[in-house]
Amino acid sequence: MRTVRESVLDVLRARGITTVFGNPGSTELPMLKRFPEDFRYVLGLQEAVVVGMADGFALASRTTSLVNLHTGPGTGNAMGAILNARANRTPMVVTAGQQVRAMLTMEALLSNPQATLLPQPAVKWAYEPPRPADVPAALARAVQIAETPPHGPVFLSLPMDDFDAELTEAEDLAGRAAAARRITHAAAPDAATVAALADRISRARSAVLVVGDDVDASGAWDAVLALAERTGLPVWAAPVAARVSFPRSHPQFRGDLAPAIGPLGRQLAGHDLVVVVGAPVFRYYPYVPGSHLPEGTELVLLTRDAEEAARAPVGDAVVADLALTVRALAERLPAAGTGAPAQHEQVRFPESADGVLTPLAALTAIAQGAPENTLWVNESPSNVPQFHEATRIAAPDSYLFSAGGGLGFGAAAAVGAQLGAPDRPVVCVIGDGSIHYAVQALWTAAAYKVPVTFVVLSNAKYAILHWFAQLEHAQGAPGLDIPGLDITSVADGYGVRTHRAQSAGELTKLVRDAAAQQDGPVLIDVPVTTELPSL
C-alpha cells in the first residue's frame, strides 16, 4: 500500500512543482524524509526569507511555488512576507507542519491551535485536512485555488503523523484524480459590453489609458501595447506599480500617477474618460484629500478581480480576462491618425554632490552595466522615480517590486527570481535599510551559488521615512537613521563576494562583470546622497 507521502509527491509532480522553499523543523521532517532526487529543496535561514524567495521564484517562472514552514512559530515569522505575496498576487502553496493528531486536543508542544486562523486574512484559503487520506486531494485543491485569478497564497496545516499513513487503493486513486484535473481561466467579455466600451472611447474627447501590474502578470502586455498604438491614447502607469506593464521608452508613455487622491486627480485633468487596465482604482498612500477624478471625467476598470472591481471608489468595471478583453476592444476601434504623440517629459535629478553619487547617477551607472535582458528587482523605495528614469524598462517580465508596502521582499525575491529564471541575469537594487529585513537571503544565494547581482544604495537612513515625516509633519520622530552599517562585512560573513564602488565608472564595470558570471552572488555597496521624492 502507498503512503500519504508518496501520494503527495505524485500530486506535486503532476502539477510541475518540484522545488520546495523551506526552513525545516521537527514537525516537517516526516514530510521531507527520503527526499526524492527529482525534487529540489532550497533552504532559507528565516521563514520570511523563505516565503520571499518563493514569491520571486513564482513571479519569475510564472509557476506556483511551494513553501514548507515550521508549525505556528514558523508561520508567524513568515506572515509579513505572506502579506506581500498576497499583494503581489503570487500563486503559492504554503504548508506548515502540525503536531501529531493524538496530541492536538491537549495542545502539546508545537501544536498549532486554530492553525487555519493564524495566516488569515493573508491567504485565499486555509485548511487542515480532517483525515490523513485527505491530504493529497487537499494539496491538489490548494494548487487550483492559488492559480485561480486573482492569484495568491493558500495555506495547509499538515499533521506530522499523516505522511506515513497508508492509503487504500480508492484513496490513492482519488488523490491522483484530483492532481490530474486542469482548470482553464479565460472569461471572455460579453460582446455587447465590449461594443459599449469601444463606443465610449470613440465618443470621448480625450481618453487615456492607465495600466497596472496585472497587465504584465496576466500576459496582456502585447495586447495593451497594440491597443495603445492603434488608438494613439496616452498611457500612464498606475501608482506604486510592482511591475512594468508598458514600455517606459514608448512615446505614448506619460509616467507614473501619484499615489494620492488629490494629486492623482489633478494629473488626469483634461481627460474625459480614463480606461484602467489591470490595476486597483487606485493604490493610494499617503492620504492627500481631493477629487478622485476631475469634474466630468468618467472611468472604466478592466480587471480579473471581482473584489477589486467592487471596492473601487469611482467608475464602472468589466471583470474578464484582460488579454481577451483588450484584443476584442482593439478590433472595434478605428486606427488613430498618423500624428506622433508628444514625448513625456523626462524627470531630471542632480548628477553629483560632494563627490558622492546621487541616486540617479548611481542608477544610471547600474543600468549602463546591466545586460539588455536583465530581470530587475527593486527595493529602494525612496528612489523609485530615479530607478525608472535610469532603466526605462521596455520588455515584459522584467521588473519586480513589492505591491504590499512592507520591506523584506527584495533580497529574498531576487534569489528566488534567479532560480525561477536561470537564463536571465538578475540585478537587485536595494536600500541599505531594506536589505537587512531579509539579509539571510545572502546565505542562500552563496550556498546555492545563485548569481544575483545585489547593488546596495547606502545612505545610512530610512530615506522614505524622512519623506513621510515631512509630509505628515512628524519631524523629530526617532529611529529614522541607521548609522554604522557595514553590509559588505555582513555579506562577507555569509560567503558573498563584495565590492564598494566610489564612482559611476567603477560601478558600471562592477555590475557588468557581476552580471556576466555564473559563479554565485556578488554584492556591490555604493554610497549615495539622499533625495526625497516629491508628490
Write the SSE topology.
Blueprint lengths: L3 H11 L4 E4 L6 H4 L7 E4 L3 H15 L3 E5 L1 H18 L3 E7 L27 E2 L7 H12 L6 E7 L9 H12 L10 H13 L3 E5 L1 H5 L3 H11 L3 E3 L15 E4 L4 H7 L5 E5 L20 E6 L2 H6 L4 E4 L2 H11 L19 E2 L2 E2 L1 H11 L5 E5 L4 H8 L7 E2 L9 H11 L5 E6 L9 H7 L4 E7 L4 H9 L15 H7 L3 E4 L3 H13 L5 E6 L8
Parallel strand pairs: 1-2, 1-3, 3-4, 4-6, 5-6, 7-8, 7-10, 8-9, 10-11, 11-12, 15-16, 15-17, 17-18, 18-20, 19-20
Antiparallel strand pairs: 13-14
List the keywords.
535 residues; alpha/beta; 6-stranded parallel beta sheet; 19 helices; 17% strand; globular
Give structural notes.
With 535 residues, the chain is an alpha/beta fold. It is 36% helix and 17% strand. It is built from 19 helices and 20 strands. The chain has helices at residues 4-14, 29-32, 47-61, 71-88, 135-146, 169-180, 191-203, 213-217, 221-231, 261-267, 306-311, 322-332, 359-369, 384-391, 410-420, 441-447, 463-471, 487-493, 504-516, and strands spanning 19-22, 40-43, 65-69, 92-98, 126-127, 153-159, 207-211, 235-237, 253-256, 273-277, 298-303, 316-319, 352-353, 356-357, 375-379, 399-400, 426-431, 452-458, 497-500, 522-527. Strand 13 (352-353) and strand 14 (356-357) form a beta hairpin. Helix 9 packs parallel to helix 12 (322-332). The protein is globular and about 70 Å long. It starts with a helix and ends in an 8-residue tail after the last strand.
